[in-house]
Specification:
Layout: H1 2-13, H2 20-30, H3 32-38, H4 48-54, H5 58-76
Helix pairs in contact: 1-2, 2-3, 2-5
């Protein structure tokens, strides 16, 4: 339950982005200060693609991409 709360809070923090999910997932995985650094401290105008290129933790980048890939997989199958 605490993890769900924290993830929701992280995604809410990035709600001004056109797609806040990658930002929130990165914040959830690596922390708010690192996510801020990767976004160049701009919570409202960084593309998800640019943001992920700035992520210098391979594990975090892979984590975010993996979850997004799985989401798209299930979405195509009509399960989301």
């Amino acid at each position: 339950e605490a993890g769900t709360w924290y993830l929701h809070r992280a995604v809410e923090h990035w709600k001004l982005q056109s797609d806040p999910v990658p930002f929130g997932l990165a914040e959830y995985n690596a922390g708010a200060s690192r996510a801020q650094r990767w976004s160049k401290n701009d919570v409202s105008d960084t593309s998800a693609r640019t943001f992920l290129k700035n992520v210098d933790f391979p594990g975090t980048r892979k984590y975010v991409e993996s979850i997004i890939d799985r989401y798209r997989f299930y979405q195509r199958r009509g399960r989301m």
